[in-house]
Specification:
heterodimer; A: 247 residues; alpha/beta; Rossmann fold; four-stranded antiparallel beta sheet; 10 strands; globular; B: 309 residues; mainly alpha; two-stranded antiparallel ribbon; 14 helices; 4 strands
């Protein structure tokens, strides 16, 4: 089966520091890939290089068989790749529902047609579906910036799914989230994977979350790929334990 | 509630249309100037308040619109053509001014737009063949549209007010459309905006261009209001006043520019009773207001609610 995403020998250096040093991996359609590694191992830089947020020094990124290296975040979004960021990135002045609508509206029609479109750009129903799925109906009319950290995180993740992306890159979705919400988040991601066929690449430090959610895991250390395999294999991998867990 | 809001809006509009009926010519002049600045402020509020792009160039667009109107009206062109021409000229120049905003933000962008204002000011002062230089252009005729003459001050106020209502209506419609939400996303978080497919380049340029077009229309009313244009009113100082207008009224609030224009245009006139002290009092009031209400005068109800909660 053709890979959905293929990353080949991607490299990014900041001066003498090689943040990402020749990482290659692929994601199959419908797969949930976990990315682990200690702080500073290059996970977020690799995400940013794949997504055009930083310009990689070398390497190729293929999405659905097409070279998408360096085409930028906007073009990648339009090709069906969604993302969330390590830090909260909601539109604080807009309501939760408007955050969702704006995350989907630009995929409908042209800029000219949107000027004359209904205020919700025809995305209202989709926004309501996502609101229901993420169980955030009770805060849908509130300004996203006024919500608690955990609620904003849910909105942030929900936004990535508005445009029915085929691949979503999630950067530390559990960070700062109430432990009680983490199981709920995992169920949500499983449902989105099962029902909408979305594939994920998940950077996460919560090992329990990664091991239970992901079908395959890669481990980065010092910008290089240290190991990859099934979750249970990674849990017993000595190099991973040494580099990541310090044991 | 929504219905009540519409009734209130209609009532205020009718009152504003008829209220200056008994005013003398200077009062009418100042009230019309308030309307003109309000229109320019509506445009700047889109650029600054809704799209989050700082601009110190709105005074230049007011000038470009004013000189476009002055030159064309003296050449006998109808104001029916002058208003859209002034808007289009400023739209095109505003689009160009948007390009620096793609590279720099915040105070760097403020200086880039300030530099643009200085360039326009120098052009207006030095290109005498077109602008009359420091002597300016005088005897600018007031509009005659479909044989209706707007030469008397009250008639010209009514025309200006109708233009304001039309321009305000267009802005309300724009902000309610998906574009309005995209502008807000650009203001709140441009990096996130790109990741959800919002073309930040396009919306940044549009925020500048549309905001500038409003400045152009305001300028096309300014010229026949004063019936004389010279470079001084379009200097950087005026752009600062316009930015103050947007911020002091309530940046990103629809009626912010209306209140802001009261502060910038009408308040100094009302303070003239204090004679030599009026500008000092004005300055102190602005400082106090910015300290106490950094969100502008229209944020007062929110602040009071917050205090009660």
């Amino acid at each position: 089966m053709r890979a959905l995403l293929e990353v080949r020998d991607i490299r990014k250096a900041y001066g003498a520091i090689r943040a990402v040093d020749g990482v290659s991996f692929s994601v199959a359609p419908g797969e949930i890939l976990g990315v682990i590694g200690p702080n500073g191992s290059g996970k977020t830089t690799m995400f940013n290089a794949i997504l055009g947020q930083v310009k990689p020094d070398a390497g190729e990124v293929m999405f659905e068989g097409r070279d998408v290296s360096g085409i930028g975040a906007l073009a990648l979004a339009r090709r069906g790749i969604g993302r969330t960021f390590q830090s909260l990135q909601v539109f604080g002045g807009l309501s939760v529902r408007d955050n969702l609508i704006v995350a989907g509206q630009e995929f409908v029609g042209s800029a000219g047609s949107r000027l004359f479109a209904r205020p919700d750009a025809g995305m209202g129903q989709r926004a309501d579906e996502i609101i229901e799925l993420f169980r955030i109906g009770h805060v849908a009319h509130l300004a996203a910036g006024s919500l608690s950290y955990g609620q904003q995180k849910l909105v942030d993740i929900a936004m990535a799914f508005m445009a029915r992306p085929r691949l979503v890159l999630l950067d530390e979705p559990c960070a700062g989230v109430n432990p009680a919400l983490i199981d709920e988040l995992m169920d949500l991601l499983r449902r989105l994977n099962r029902e909408q066929g979305a594939s994920f690449v998940v950077i996460e430090h919560n090992m329990d979350f990664v091991m239970r959610l992901c079908s395959r895991v890669i481990c980065l250390a010092m910008g290089t790929m240290l190991a990859q395999g099934l979750p249970e294999e990674m849990q017993g991998n000595r190099a991973v334990l040494e580099a990541y867990l310090g044991v | 509630m929504k219905y009540l809001r519409w009734v209130a809006l209609l009532a205020v509009s009718v009152a504003l249309y008829f209220a200056p009926g008994q005013m003398k010519s200077y009062g009418l002049y100042i009230t019309t100037l308030w309307v003109v600045y309000w229109i320019a402020g509506v445009g700047l509020n889109l650029t600054v308040g809704y799209a989050g792009q700082i601009s110190l160039g709105q005074g230049a667009f007011l000038g470009i619109g004013a000189y476009t109107a002055a030159v064309l009206s003296k050449a006998g062109v109808s104001y029916l053509a002058i208003f859209p021409t002034a808007a289009l000229v400023c739209f095109a120049i505003g689009l160009l001014l948007g390009f620096p905003a793609l590279r720099v933000q915040h105070h760097y962008l403020a200086f880039a737009t300030l530099g643009f204002n200085m360039l326009v000011f120098l052009f207006l002062r030095n290109e005498e063949w077109l602008t009359g230089g420091t002597f300016g252009l005088n005897n600018i005729p007031r509009p005659v549209i479909f044989d209706v003459r707007f030469t008397r001050p009250l008639d010209f106020y009514h025309l200006s007010f109708v233009v304001l209502v039309v321009m305000g209506g267009v802005m309300a419609w724009l902000l309610r459309s998906p574009w309005g939400r995209a502008f807000a996303a650009l203001r709140d978080n441009p990096i996130r905006a790109e990741s959800v497919g919002i073309n930040t380049t396009f919306y940044t340029l549009m925020a500048f261009a549309i905001g500038a077009a409003y400045g152009g229309v305001a300028g096309a009313l300014f010229a026949p209001l004063v019936q004389f244009v010279e470079p001084a009113p379009f200097s950087v100082a005026n752009s600062l006043s316009m930015l103050l207008m947007v911020i002091a009224g309530g940046s990103g609030r629809f009626f912010g520019p209306a209140v802001g224009a009261v502060i910038v245009v009408l308040l100094p006139e009302w303070l003239r009773v204090a004679q030599d002290w009026y500008l000092a009092i004005f300055g102190v009031l602005i400082v106090l207001m910015m300290v106490w209400l950094p969100g502008g005068l229209l944020s007062l109800p929110d602040r009071l609610r917050g205090r009660r909660a």
